[in-house]
Structure formats: structure tokens, C-alpha cells
Amino acid sequence: MKLFVLNSGSSSLKYTLYDISNGIREIVSGLVERIGEQDGAATLLHEAEKEKLAAQVADHHEALELVLRQLRNHGYLQAFSDLAGCAHRVVHGGTKFSEPILINRQVLDAIEALIPLAPLHNPANLEGIRTMMKLSPDTPQIALFDTAFHHRMPEIAYRYALPETLFTQLDIRRYGFHGLSHHYLRDEAAGLLGKTPEQCNLITLHLGNGASAAAIRAGKSIDTSMGFTPLEGLVMGTRPGDLDAGILLYLMEKKDLDAEALDQLLNHGSGLKGLCRTNDMREILAQKSRGDQQAKLAFDVFCYRIKKYIGAYTAILGRVDAVVFAGGIGEHSATVREEVCSGLEHLGLVLDTAKNRKFTHGALMIHHPESRVAIAAAETNEAMQMARESADLLKKRKNVVQS
Ligand code: ADP
């Protein structure tokens, strides 16, 4: 039984093929980049073979046909109709979706209706779904939502202090994102702690180009730093995170900025890039070590914001079993982990510097024996999380059909 996990963006498509016959085993993964541009490329990634095909890829249909050709050439999959299921990542599930769901007409319409809340992401996710439905109409298609893990946050965490009608009429509330990653990290941390997820209180930090923190009590997300959109919270690659909304009013008036200009500023021109001209943390660390003051400031602001969230989430959780670092930066940068944890000894966090530097992959505890709170560094794996949830759903469906 094979499961295809798809993350489809507007100009790229990432996939992983799993064998789900007996447990869940990754077979191969790959990506198609620059869809719709002159110089598209499909890359098949595998430990033993890495193959890059340069090709002009007009749309998601051509991209998936190219992927299938590659998979077939290497003997991984003969036809999409051989799949037991296809899982699709969908960024925004609104208030409607709290679980993975088999896609039918109503689900498609509901995802479409959420486009105004995620104009950059949901249309591209839908494109992937519709294309797979055309290519393999009999394969069960499953939607998994980035908002779902945060769906049961309490109202005090998800409500903004705005007029009630904005909530009731326009659904303006906090949703939270990166849910597949926070969910996966919860289970990784529970494994490291030797507990069930329901026994764990955690602060999970997904620090990539997009960055978010989650407060997890008894296995459930009770708060998270991203809100109505993925703009809120931590400092990110090109987004500012928390911001005084008054700045936007000021810019509209003083600089005559319209919605498009503000969108550009907030989504693409701020964050680490706004502070020091690059959003690549590796470059920032290199510049900082050469004495560049702007890079140092960007690094400091980035880490300071994370510290504040750890403090806030410790306050609401009471007991914290572990703080988990993940995402491109959280996983790879021992320097960021060291700076974030420094000075948080009063909250019970004491890093073991040697263990911290030793972490390379997988998941590892990196705290000192004296630390009251465990600290972990981990690779996140959203595709694996999608595979686990989809395999469960397909199993339940099979049971329903059989009984
Ligand atoms: P995305 O959110 O786009 O998936 P990633 O999770 O891949 O992003 O994270 C990208 C970030 O991780 C970039 O800022 C990159 O510089 C940073 N990063 C990757 N490798 C390292 C490393 N070895 N040291 C520090 N930062 C790293």
C-alpha cells in the first residue's frame, strides 16, 4: 500500500512517497521547482540516487506527470491509480476543519471559500488537489490542515480584543499555523521524555523562514504565536511578527501606503531581512562573527522575541516538561539555541553546551542534568505527520467499509 504526500505551492511542489502496508516507511521524496517558468526542474531525492531533470513545466498537471515518469523510471510507482491514497497539505482550514478529511465536492468548496483568509496558499493547495483528482479519480484524496492542531485553543487565546462583529461576521480570530510541525514535534518530545503525548506540557518552536511557537498542555495546543494570518508572533525571515498596528495607520497616512504596499512590506520586506538585508540565518551568523552590527542586532532581536514567548508560555502552562527547537534555524543553529536559553535559568532551562553543539539530526535532549525543564533539538517532519494521520484515516475508512 503506497501513500503519496503532496505539498503544493504556487510555483513548487514537494512530495514524499510512503509504504504504509506495515507501519510507515518513506520510499522516496522529491520536488518540482519553478512551475510556470522557463527553467523548471524536477528533482528526485533518494539516498542512493539523486536525479535532476531540467524541463519546462507549465503547470501542476505537467509537474505531476513529470514526477510520475521519474517514479516509474526508477520502479517506485507505476501509476497514480496504484496509490492507496494521496494526502494534501492545506494551509488554512478556518473554523471548519479540525481533523484530516477525505476530499469530496463539499470539502473542495469549503477550502475554496477559505481563500480570502489565505490568498497566497489555499489556491495553490487546491490546484494540487484538483490535478490529482483528474489524474487519478478513484484514489482517495485527503486534506490535512496547518491550522487543525490549534483548532481547540481556548477562546481567551484565539479572540482578539476587537469589536464582536468582526469575529462573528468576518471570522477575525487567531487560527495559528505550522500545526503539522507542532504536532509532530509534540510526539517527538513525548518519545524523548518517555511519556504519552497527553502527559506532556511543551513549548515547541518551529524556527524556519516562517517561525512560530506553540504552548501545548496535556498534548493539546492551547496557544500559538501566529494568528489570523502567519504574520503574527516571532520575528521571521521576511515578516516582522508582533507589531504595533498603529505603525500601519501611520504609514498609510505619512507614506500613502495602500494594501498592496503594506502586504509587500509585511510579508517580504521585514523580519531578519528588514533588519539586516538578508533572511539567511547562516549568513547572519557569519556576518555577526565578523563584527557586523546590523547582523548582530537582527540575531539579538530574533532570539529576544523567542525568549519572551518562552516566558509567556511558561506563565500560562505552569509546568513545562520540555522546550523543543526545530525548523531550519532551530534544528541547525546551536548558536541560536544557546542565545535563546541563556538567562532563562530562573525558568528552569539550563542548556548543556556540549550536547547542544553535538546535535546533528533526528531528535536529542540537549539540557544539563540540573535543568528542571528538558530542552530538545529535533528535525521536524511535516510529511511524516501527514502520512501518519492519513494512514489512520484510510485504516478507519477500510474498517467502516468492511463492517
Ligand atoms: P522554511 O520555513 O522556508 O521551510 P526552513 O525551515 O528550511 O525554512 O529554514 C530556513 C532557515 O534555516 C534559513 O534562515 C536558513 O538560513 C536557516 N538555516 C539552514 N541551515 C542552517 C544552519 N546550518 N545554521 C543556521 N541556520 C540555518
Low-confidence stretches: none
What would the CATH topology of the largest domain be?
Answer: Nucleotidyltransferase, domain 5
Number of DSSP E strands: 14
Which ligands occur here? adenosine-5'-diphosphate
CATH architecture of the largest domain: 2-Layer Sandwich
What do the pLDDT scores average to?
95
For the biggest sheet, the summary is: 8 strands, mixed
Strand content: 15-25%
Q: Find the structural class using helix and strand composition.
A: alpha/beta
The CATH C-level name of the largest domain is Alpha Beta
- CATH H-level homologous superfamily name of the largest domain: ATPase, nucleotide binding domain
Give the helix tally: 15
- Termini separation comes to 21 Å
Identify the strand order in the major beta sheet.
Answer: 5-4-3-2-1-6-8-7
What overall geometry do the principal axes of the alpha carbons give? globular
Number of domains: 2
Binned, the helix content reads 40-55%
**SSE series:** EEEEEHEEHHEHHHEEEHHHHHEHHHEEH
How large is the radius of gyration?
A: 22 Å
Describe the structure.
The protein is of the alpha/beta class and 403 residues long. It folds into 2 domains: 2-145, 2-Layer Sandwich (Nucleotidyltransferase, domain 5); 196-382, 2-Layer Sandwich (Nucleotidyltransferase, domain 5), CATH 3.30.420.40. The protein contains 15 helices and 14 strands. The strands form 2 sheets. It has an 8-stranded mixed beta sheet, with helices on both faces. The chain has a 6-stranded mixed beta sheet with strand order 11-10-9-12-14-13, with helices on both faces. Helix 6 (179-193) crosses helix 15, helix 10 (281-289) packs across helix 11 and helix 11 (293-317) packs across helix 13. Adenosine-5'-diphosphate binds at residues 208-210, 237, 279-282, 327-329, 332-333. The site of adenosine-5'-diphosphate (ADP) has 13 residues, from helix 10 and helix 12.
